[in-house]
Amino acid sequence: MNSFTLTQATATDEAVRDLTSHDGAAYLGGGTNLVDLMKYNLERPTHLTSLGLLPLTDITSLPDGGLRLGALATNADTAWHPEVEKRYPLLSQTILAGATPQLRNVATNGGNLNQRTRCYYFYDLATPCNKREPGSGCSALTGPNRVCGVLGTSESCIATHPSDMCVALAALEAVVRVQGPDGERTIKFEDYHRLPGDHPEKDNTLKPGELVTAIDLPEEGYADHFTYLKLRDRSSYAFALVSVAVGLKMNGNTIEKARFALGGVAHKPWRDQEAEKMLEGQTASPDLFRQVAAKVFAEAKGYGEDSLHNSFKIELGKRAIVRALKQATEMSQVVNPNVFLNSNP
Amino acid sequence: MSQTIATPPTVRLDSDVLGKPISRTDGPAKVSGAAKYAAEFGVTGPLWYGYIVSSPIAKGKITKIHADEVLAIPGVQHIFSHENVPSLAWFDRNYKDDVAPGGSPFRPLHEPEILFSLQPVALVVADTFELARYAASVLRIEYDVEKHNTDLEASIGEAYDAPRGKTGFMPPPKPKGDMDKAYQEAPHKIAGEYIHRAQHQNPMEMFATTVDWLGDGKKMKIYDKTQGAPNVQQYLMKIFSLSTDEARVISKFTGGGFGSGLRPQYQVFLAVMAALELKHSIRVVMTRTQMFSFGHRPHTLQKLRLATDDLGQIQALEHKALHETSQFENYTETIVNWAGVLYPSPNTNFDYQLAKLDVYSPLDMRAPGAATGSFALESAIDEMAYAANVDPLDFRLRNYSYEDPIENKPFTSKRLDDCLHEGAARFGWDQRNPEPRSMRDGNQLVGWGVAAGCWDASMQKAAAKAVLSADGHLTVSSATNDQGAGTYVIMTQMAAQTLGLPMKQVTFNLGDTNMPAAPVQGGSWTANSVGAAVKDACQGIGKKLLKLAQKMDNSPLAGVDFEDAQFVDGYIRANEDITRSVAIADILAASGEEKIEADGKAGPNPINMLKYSMHSHNAVFVEVKVDEDLGTIHVTRVVNAVAAGRIMNPKTARSQVLGGTVWGLSMALMEETYLNNELGRFMNHNYAEYHIPVNADIHKIDVIFVEEQDDIASPIGVKGVGEIGMLGVAAAIANAVYHATGKRVRELPLTSDKLL
């Protein structure tokens, strides 16, 4: 970790000014990812603009029926907020499926969007990694890559975005509010994160100096038919191999509206709007779910066949979609199957 | 010698403590933070910090170290590398520790050659930890890169028979009969290949050394994270030509070891070298990544062939194993021999080979070798039982070894059969439908599996000292270790019981080379070896007390031999007439002595070792629930029945077996270090990506102790429980998964992708 200076900003415009007036500066939210990356000597900001005093911690109802999540509200406060629990249980459960209580108590909503990949090679300075050091190569293409993606990958990078929360935000069609040197703007959630292409060093579409101030949720929260299915190598404190967030509007056994997104498979939370359309107006059935799952993974590319490599995610991902759609349709299992309740104590 | 008290006591002090479930005496210090670990000790003067720089490549040579750039940073004191390392001991033997395998031990900073990825190549010393870490991050080092080989499966052709060299090495048993012929002709047979890759011990406490430079010649207090302070001291003395006074090694608490702390690790070498060169106190702490740089359970390939007659009696048994070692040492462990101990067969064949790779030497990890062999063997036994159409539990009883088949020696004790029976009863095995895929819970498949395990009951040389002060407090010490096993409390119990004192009047100290020597804590031998030495020392005190009692006027103990006396509740009493008693407090008062001291020792009995086979055993029963669509496996119930001689403390022993069971589950379902062969480097080198279980993964675990009376394996009847709890668990889980799904998975860990 290098030496750095730190400013404690008290207003959003002051924070933006402070950051843009320093070279090599970074915003510091909860610090649960950035500080780790600095200890690994992987992020080397020479100045930090601390956001801890900014008035962005509120969660408030919007006139259009939606809900605004302050960028500095913690993940824990968001997940346990009564309005979130009642109207957006998908978001609440998805947040609680990630990290640990200790991390969620400190990690912020804005930071959750901006956390960086957990690809092994990104974290190890001794290895080539285009995301960390553009042009150095991608070690994950052939090396162990169980944690890496199978959708929307490029020859430059097959890293995944590690967030759970963002998978639900993608399904919920949230809108990200940002403030930068040129004022405020909004970004549709599907446009917030990007695919690696030739520039995997860029995780998202933020412009220099821009700061996330809030995340707006539309009115529809799919509270009657939703699920978050997270498959991972242990029951807690593990990133998703594959996860699926589903929100449905049902009329009897007919799906009126369907939104779903996948985690653990791509450089961004993966939505497939054509696949969503395949569900709408249709009667829920295992066959339909299998067709939808096949569509989502039609273009998928695996990178190696053994258990250290990730081709298995294609089959696992299809099965996860089928199961998640079934769960959301039937509301048969709203708890994460990995939080296993022993029926035989 | 003025007074004698012959009346029985009215207030009883409870000294009958051995075998009781007593809480850890060191528990309060640990949970309150009072227990200090190696990196937490203060020093007498100012403290400097050393940060280790690790090699990014697996093989090659350092061509240039740009130290000057970094030395220019204010606060950076020194940079050690092969370019300026002081002249040290020359011969390999100086670098060999008690646990070293055969070969030539790695010497940190000795030469520019790179032998493995993450090899320490420099130590940056600075005024603060943060500065040392920063300085290390900007130190430029140039390398000539050479082609490395870390691929075991591509190196099978280079394998060679495992040579002797490591203490305790057991060569594979000699073959019997005609394996190939018996296998060919048998009516029922199976064959399988088993694999697991590297696993790392991953104790929570990072390896760390704080050297307190005392400013008196070369005298140092060396606080080290280790499983054996004496082993570290000997290593340092031989390399740096130090006396015992100069190299005092202290390790009061060890935050987990699991084998990783058996050998002195390179941080202690670097810290002591730096302290001696700079004549200054220094602290060196490894990073979590560096915890993946000095040994691991080796990547191992195994093959088993088994055949039975129509009655399900094993006629042919073959077990072969091959694992990696480094280019410089021949690491060995005992993998294939257990099959020969557990299952008699007229025709056998065993084989054990190594292959050299550009990695650091593997290192004993909980139940080394046995955990590996047991997984393959007990999976194969299950498969064989199915092939012979015999219940897997009955199969183990039908093929039970009543004496050690390898050398036809009797066991000192073996109640594995009772473990199997009692475990089966507790588990409800008789309710099992043997047909795979026959049991369900809702939409999940249910599977029940069983496996047996075996470990050595061994003893090492150990010593202890006991001091009884005039106020009646007994202090016993031995330079042993407590990596969390419960050594503090069981040795306190042993001392209290031997001299008939209540626990609160007894203190047991450990982890300081100024104390009598003890072996490294490993192999499940501490309870047995150190326990016997503690008992011996306390009996020495007892003999002196009895003599003093007999000098008292009208002593009621006159003429009573030590063997005919008992030490109970603060009194010495005659066995024949317990009203003939004297309070120890009164003996001390009457004697006028300030303190009474005695030394104790213990060691293996070589004659018994030749005549007998000494083992602990267990039987593990497991229930799994499998979501077949998603490949998720949950271990919902475990019964682990253990026969390990006398149990000194059922509470800490149960904790040991619980921990072993969790470790076995971890091995079965999660643990694997991902080696990138192109980079020659382990990649998931952190707690986020190297998975071990969380609480939510662990459900009901039932521990049964089947006690054995065994005065031959141990003078105190103890076999140890450090490893045995882990054995059988991984195989029982794999067998349960087979029962649930009909799929036989022979590769660990059993991650969900293997069931898709």
TrEMBL record, chain A:
Entry keyword Flavoprotein? yes
Q: Where is the FAD-binding PCMH-type domain?
A: 1-222
Query: Is Flavoprotein among this UniProt entry's keywords?
Result: yes
- Which Pfam families does UniProt cross-reference here? CO_deh_flav_C, FAD_binding_5
Q: Which UniProt keywords apply?
A: FAD, Flavoprotein
What protein name applies here? Xanthine dehydrogenase family protein subunit M
Taxonomic lineage from the root: Bacteria, Pseudomonadati, Bacteroidota, Cytophagia, Cytophagales
From TrEMBL, chain B:
Q: Which InterPro entries match?
A: Ald_Oxase/Xan_DH_a/b, Ald_Oxase/Xan_DH_a/b_sf, Ald_Oxase/xanthine_DH-like, AldOxase/xan_DH_MoCoBD1, AldOxase/xan_DH_MoCoBD2, AldOxase/xan_DH_Mopterin-bd_sf
Task: Please report the stretch or stretches of sequence annotated as the Aldehyde oxidase/xanthine dehydrogenase a/b hammerhead domain.
Answer: 32-147
Identify the domain of life.
Answer: Bacteria
Question: Which PANTHER family does the UniProt entry name for this protein?
Answer: DEHYDROGENASE, XANTHINE DEHYDROGENASE
Identify this protein by name: Xanthine dehydrogenase family protein molybdopterin-binding subunit
Q: Which organism is it from?
A: Hymenobacter ginsengisoli
